[in-house]
Specification:
Elements: H1 6-15, H2 36-41, E1 50-55, H3 69-79, H4 82-95, H5 99-125, E2 130-135, H6 144-147, H7 165-169, E3 173-174, E4 179-180, H8 183-202, E5 219-220
Parallel strand pairs: 1-2, 2-5
Antiparallel strand pairs: 3-4
Length: about 220
């Protein structure tokens, strides 16, 4: 790698992984002989306690809040099989009063929430104890310190991707992100961080039941 041109490495990093993600594992036949999702479906993984979840507004906003029905339909066509598009559109239209949020949550559900739920079901069916969560709180702190100064307005972000991380660590102040949690956020952070510590120390967080049956979530914050 030290002798390889930087451009070649950059191009390869985009192509690596059958999932199309540059941080996806590389199936090399030595250290990794199959994609993790395939291993999961076959039940070939350690059945240790697992914490997994997602935020309410996983999809980062584009900056244009005036999304039209036509633009939503374009998102729908890219994300959903044609046979299901009419049904999916009706469900999102009934749930959201603005096409912007309908589009945002459709993209978030397809890319993060639905795969997370599939992961949970696969892990539980294979015998692993899973503690799943959905984080819906919009933090009080200024998110520009995390994502830069040229991002869309704060009201378009909601409970964005990664919003739960400061709450997991539970620190009133996180210098790296120049974040200071307000009192209400700190109270929630104390609860969430305590659950993570209990998970790490005992494998079973208190007041957080493991997923059972068809229910894909067991905690909501």
């Amino acid at each position: 790698l030290l002798q390889s041109p930087a451009d070649d490495i950059a191009i390869a990093s985009v192509k690596v992984g059958a999932q199309g993600l540059k941080w996806a594992p590389t199936v090399d036949g030595i250290e990794v002989d199959e994609l993790p999702c395939v291993k999961m479906s076959q039940g070939e993984f350690s059945k240790v306690p697992i914490v997994v979840g997602f935020t309410r507004d996983e999809s980062a906003p584009s900056g244009n809040q005036d999304v039209t029905e036509v633009e939503f339909d374009q998102v729908l066509q890219h994300q959903v099989p044609k046979l299901l598009q009419a049904q999916v559109k009706a469900e999102y239209r009934a749930q959201y009063s603005e096409w912007f949020w309908a589009a945002q949550h459709l993209k978030a559900d397809v890319s993060v929430a639905c795969p997370t739920r599939r992961f949970v079901r696969a892990a539980v069916s294979a015998g692993a104890p899973v503690f799943a969560y959905k984080f819906s709180r919009q933090p009080d702190f200024d998110i520009r310190v995390m994502y830069g100064s040229h991002i869309p307005p704060r009201q378009q972000w909601g409970a964005f991707h990664g919003a739960e991380l400061p709450f997991v660590f539970g620190n009133p102040q996180i210098d790296a992100w120049r974040i200071t949690l307000q009192q209400a956020d700190q109270e929630l952070a104390s609860v969430i961080s305590r659950r993570w510590v209990e998970m790490a120390s005992a494998g079973t967080p208190s007041n957080w039941p493991a997923v059972t049956g068809a229910s894909p979530l067991s905690a909501s914050w």
